[in-house]
Design brief:
Strand order of the largest sheet of chain A: 13-14-15-16-17-18-20-23
Helix content of chain A: 40-55%
Strand content of chain A: 15-25%
Distance between the termini of chain A: 33 Å
Low-confidence stretches of chain A: 1-6
Number of strands of chain A: 23
Mean pLDDT of chain A: 95
Number of helices of chain A: 21
Radius of gyration of chain A: 24 Å
Oligomer: homodimer
């Protein structure tokens, strides 16, 4: 039983429980030091040598990045560095990757990608600037982690290099955005990027600066001090008042074989049908931050622990006006916490867009697809809405549908939906009145408006049909249809880059018996089928 | 021996030799009628039933689209229609796909994609407007062919539908841009696109119009006449003077086991090393149109016939100033033929960008990387330039480096290369003087400038190293590093869509013993591994 076959990953953690990262707060700075405990892999079976990471290490990093925003808003710059001798980070653990199931590899890469994007989101929108202090070997996913930071500094010790050795050593791609960030974020010349990505030993010293791979070099003797000075300079640029921080409470869901139950969110599995029902309940003491944290956690559990579930039915409960009022208040971004809450909601919704399961939203009696919760329906592949005789089933927009919760490629979900008529997207987002089923259908907000008498049958058939289709074809189809419009660097990571990586992971040249990933660290040389596609 | 294992495909054809298409010229209209001869597959082993296509059918289409531009510039609108009873086109032949090697499937899809883009290029830039006259079943690749046209009309006979049945019937994606064109070109609402792409029987009649899948319906009784009227209206919009046409001469290369030799272009294989040398010789009677047609043909032969070749060394021979003068004249687009020549050169260079082989340009004595030929070097993954003591080795730009030969994603190769400094890209493109090796190195035009004494060794080592790497990892790496910058719909087809399709093609759920593609048409139902990634 390799990783990815564990009974269930838990995504929540706390700095007091970290095994691999040390978080030190010294406002306006914080330092995140990676000192991986090689004896604590997330599942047994491999050692985390040389500051290499697995899902457990990245769960701690994601937790720290999130807590810094909410619990330590007074922090303006974060130094990411290595705590072992002469190594910053050696990237994802190869033995973990080589022994993992394909679905786990893909979801592991997706999660680490999302964590890197969360770091970039903090730099861009939270006034927390990340600096990579590469105090030693910075290889593969280690360099990709550095690439997610705003600035990268490398120790000039005549030895330490940055590298992406995946292609020459493992026969796979750097899977965490490396190729895209090298050319699109750091704007490294494409031919130099080509040399760099095929050079197992990487690039060090002045050449690393000349090629734009790092922002600067400091000698070992004053490395920490110089990075600290740079971090203080970045921190000094941030003058928005922030704080005091809040405490991020544990979610502690109640987990049973067929359900994960949170305060506002419930995930109920129907394993026989390969479906699940994911409900956001805004009826009692609705707190958007808590609800979206729960939704985020539920999505990750779904991806990592329940990979046989192919279709998720999205539901909501609550009062439209209550949610709209809360949204309107948030949209004013009167304080730092509103801003952070919106950013977390936006990240969670992007996680939903990028979840490789079919998503059907069901709008029925008592549902509450308003504003921020309407985005959940708009993220779905289809929206089914009950046409009730009373006209009580309704959806509504709020100020949050106009741009504060963008998709990965930068458009709103309404803009993406109404590509053919941008003015219509604007009009719908600004609608003052809720939409009953007829109005929603006319506005193009629903895939099917269904009369009460047909409701159960039509839903049942749609669900059964969807659950019968090839899971691979659906993954590819949904990855394409969800993202109408031009792509940016972020969306290229999940579109172009990850799709190629998935392909390579599934090929014998990487994961076959004689593949490069399988044989890494063994005396045998890989054997390739040389046919180029 | 299935298709894709043939000893060698020939890409050239002529209307007099067509087996599957009929081309009728009636200025300002032309009609291209698909009446596939089911007994004439490109390699033996399957029947081309129901107007389904294989590579041979698409080679004829590509030839017709090219000849219409050059030989029949007086044609302003082209009607694409079906010549069999009640069928427009049923798409790519499934048995051909199911029995093909992976590399062939991928290259077949790439070629058909490029043909569809050539149709769109003719609509946008050559004043030849394509209309799809869907006079019957329009399924899968048949609908994708229609999607490449500017307008789509469907017969309203109560029966004929447009459909993309790949996901529900075959467990693969529509592989020829269908999903991207549905949402990005026709701007179909994403949830309707989702329903459409999972509905094996497709959509017909008014619903097809309402969903934006087709532009209009005409009853069977006046279908031809109505389409013809619409084509004449489109043709009437084109008033630029054009013609008379020229004759497209056969290329007839001399083919031996280790070489394909044309007038200006030579492709020499070094099978033991898994490398090839592709040289464009502009020394004698250089004719750019002929030379780029030869280059195009050589690239296609390389892709389809020599898939064990992993690295192509790109060379040129000739006089810089001669090529620059020719480029300057072409750049003025004084007549329709200059315009068409430029468009063909641009398409050929895009074919080079999209060729999944490592590309090294070698700039040595006698080389001629100037202007349009410099683009060949800029398309390469690396550029090696000899530093000769005489300073005779030089490169040069021309007016064609400033935007007339764009990449698939819309940027020039200089813009893509110098993402970090757009002003530098403009400056280099406008440089009046050639660059000797030192100047080229300083300008960032070369990956490595190498002294004479090291030249042979350094090239040999670089070539050997490249040829030793995983061919899959290189394909993925190059597909990512070549396209810095934002993506548009065209580039999404080759990036996001094709990458996902490649992944699905290589998965057991499609091509395994019990996969959906393998079992299509057989009584057994496919068996899926339900784990979603």
């Amino acid at each position: 039983m390799g990783p990815g076959r564990s009974a269930g990953y838990t995504l929540e953690t706390h700095p007091s429980a970290y095994r691999h990262w040390r978080l030190a707060i010294e406002p306006p700075l914080a330092t995140l030091t990676l000192a991986v405990d090689e004896e604590s892999p997330v599942v047994p079976g491999y050692k985390l040598k040389l500051n290499s990471y697995d899902l457990g290490v990245d769960i701690e990093l994601a937790d720290a990045v999130m807590r810094l925003r909410f619990e330590h808003p007074e922090v303006r710059a974060v130094i990411l560095t290595g705590g072992l001798d002469r190594v910053f980070c050696a990237g994802a653990n190869i033995h973990m990757l080589a022994t993992s199931a394909h679905a786990f590899k893909v979801n592991f890469c997706k999660y680490t990608n999302e964590t890197r994007l969360a770091i970039e989101d903090a730099c861009a929108h939270s006034g927390q600037h990340y600096i990579a202090a590469c105090n030693g070997t910075t290889a593969g996913g280690g360099y990709e982690l550095a690439l997610a930071c705003e600035e990268i500094y490398l120790v000039d010790d005549g030895n330490s290099a940055v590298s992406l050795p995946e292609v020459p050593l493992l026969g796979v791609l750097p899977g965490t955005g490396g190729l895209t960030r090298v050319i699109d974020k750091r704007k490294v010349r494409r031919d130099l990027a080509d040399v760099f990505a095929t050079l197992a030993e990487g690039v060090k010293g002045k050449r690393a600066v000349e090629w734009r791979l790092v922002d600067g070099l400091f000698p070992k003797s004053r490395f920490q001090e110089a990075v600290r000075e740079r971090a203080l300079a970045l921190a000094a640029q941030e003058t928005r008042p922030k704080g005091p921080g809040i405490v991020i409470e544990p979610l502690d869901p109640e987990v049973s074989p067929d359900a994960v139950l949170y305060r506002h969110v419930s995930l109920r599995l129907n394993r026989g049908e390969r479906t699940a029902e994911l409900t956001i309940d805004a009826t009692t003491d609705y707190a958007p931050l808590r609800a979206f944290r729960e939704l985020d956690d539920a999505l990750l559990r779904l991806r990592l622990n329940y990979d046989e579930i192919g279709l998720v039915i999205l539901k909501t409960r609550g009062d439209l006006e209550t949610v709209r009022r809360g949204d309107t208040e948030l949209s004013q971004r009167a304080d730092w916490l509103s801003n952070e809450t919106l950013l977390l909601m936006a990240r969670t919704l992007r996680r939903l867009d990028l979840t490789a399961r079919s998503l059907f939203a069901v709008v029925d009696e008592g549902s509450c697809f308003a504003g921020s919760l309407l985005e959940i329906a708009l993220a779905a592949d289809r929206i089914y809405m009950l046409r009730d005789s009373a006209g009580a089933v309704r959806m509504a927009t709020s100020p949050l549908n106009s741009g504060l919760l963008p998709m990965t490629h930068g458009l709103t979900r309404l803009e993406t939906r109404f590509m053919a008529d941008p003015a219509h997207a604007v009009e719908i987002a600004a609608a003052a009145e809720p939409f009953d089923t007829d109005a929603a259908e006319k506005a193009g907000l629903v895939t099917a408006a269904v009369d009460e008498i047909d409701w159960e049958d039509e839903l049942r058939v749609a669900i059964e049909e969807r659950a019968s289709l090839s899971p691979d074809a659906l993954t590819g189809m949904e990855a394409n249809l969800r993202f109408a419009g031009a792509e940016n660097a972020d969306s290229k990571i999940f579109g172009r880059l990850s799709a190629w990586q998935n392909w390579i992971f599934s090929r014998p040249n990487a994961t076959g018996e004689r593949g490069a990933l399988t044989l890494y660290g063994k005396p045998e040389r890989p054997q390739f089928n040389w046919r180029r596609t």
